[in-house]
Amino acid sequence: MKKNVFIDGEIGTTGLLVHEKLTKHPNVNILSVNQDKRKDLNYKKEMFKASDISFLCLPDDSAVEAVQIANQLGNKSPIIIDASTAHRTNPDWAYGLPELGLEFRKKLLHSKRIAAPGCYSTGANVILKPLLENNFISHKNPIVINAVSGYSGGGKAMINYFKEKDHEPFFNYGLKLNHKHLPEIIYHNNLELTPIFSPSVGDFIQGMIVSIPIHFQWFKKKINTQIVRSCMEDYYSGAHFIKVLKKDEGISPQGYFRPDNLVGTNNLEISVFGNDDNNQLIISSRLDNLGKGASGAAIQCMNIALGFDETLGL
Q1: Which of 98, 100, 136 is nearest to 229 (CA)?
Q2: Sign of the dihedral defined by the CA atoms of residues 120, 121, 123, 127, in that order
Q3: Looking at the annotation, which residues are catalytic?
Q4: What is the Cβ-side half-sphere exposure of residue 284, based on CA atoms within 13 angstroms?
Q5: Angle CA(28)–CA(208)–CA(226) in degrees, nearest 5?
Q6: Residue 48: is its pLDDT beyond 90?
Q7: How far apart, in whole angstroms, are the C-alpha atoms of residue 79 and residue 65?
Q8: Residues 6+ apart with CB under 8 A from 22
Q9: Distance between CA 132 and CA 49 in Å, rounded?
Q10: Is the four-CA dihedral 147, 10, 297, 194 of positive or negative sign?
């Protein structure tokens, strides 16, 4: 029997892609939403009641309100998969990045409250977790994270901005050093220092690269570039959607590493660029900010929670 799905916020950037991907999913039925009533709380409660799974593609405040309504249903509440930042550091919620470790995957199984990760934090967490779990770096290390994303990550307002004739071709933002994805990066890696995070947006719609530069002096053991690459390969050897690239793989003949190679997929690639003579390396992850960074991750979480093949619809 197919599972009924309610997408709360299906006309937003993430909601539209969740809807699009689920139309190809063999095991779900998407409930039709009356857009004239979508903000009516009683109507929303009825939609929750009619669904087996509800995706929240909403601003934080609206997501919190929606969860309060769903909680009123008690045991009849659907599985909630929240794409906002509201519940990503809540210990009662499963964090929707199963590749981080067995405990993350187990918590998703049969969970009724799932927080889908942020796109930047997905890119950063998959780099940091293997290094920390293998005792390569310390939780006390000063981490620096640089990132560039396509403008779709900013939602409709930023998409419209980049349609303007005189828009900037590239810009850094988050310059108060308090980006909304930082709390989940700190929380799920038990970091003792707040990373310096420098996000940016370029004049392309989808795709992103997240990079963390590291001096070899930070490592707690003697390493080289290949040892770090092998660590990443071993950690993600069983992952469906994460691939660790070989040396020089994925780089253009000109030596360029572009952010939009994985658009339209739920895939993520990790690259380790090192210079053993300089005792330095940069570990980069690239993904579709609206795929593995949003809609794809949410559907992957749904599949795991329901006991489906996690690749269905993806």
Answers
A1: 136
A2: positive
A3: 119
A4: 22
A5: 105
A6: yes
A7: 16
A8: 5, 7, 28, 30, 299, 313
A9: 42
A10: positive
Query: Do the Cβ atoms of 130 and 231 come closer than 8 Å?
Result: yes
**What are the backbone angles phi and psi of residue 105, rounded to the nearest 5°?**
-65, -45
Tokens of 145: 């994270």
Q: What is the pLDDT of residues 175-191, one digit of tens each?
A: 999 999 999 999 999 99
CA 238 to chain CA mean position, Å: 19
Q: Which two tokens stand for residue 44?
A: 């929303």
Angle at 151 between CA 149 and CA 157, to 5 degrees: 140
Residue 51 confidence (pLDDT): 97
Q: Under a CB-based contact definition with an 8 Å cutoff, are residues 122 and 268 in contact? A: yes
Place of tokens 């660590």: 231
Residue 109 Ramachandran class (φ > 0 left, ψ -120 to 50 alpha, else beta): beta
Distance of CA 135 to the CA centre of its chain: 24
For 4, list phi and psi in degrees, rounded to 5.
-85, 135
Question: φ and ψ at 287, to 5 degrees?
Answer: -160, 170
pLDDT tens per residue, range 54-64: 999 999 999 99
Residue type, 270: I
Nearest to 232 by CA among 221, 242, 223: 242
Joined tokens for residue 172: 């850094």
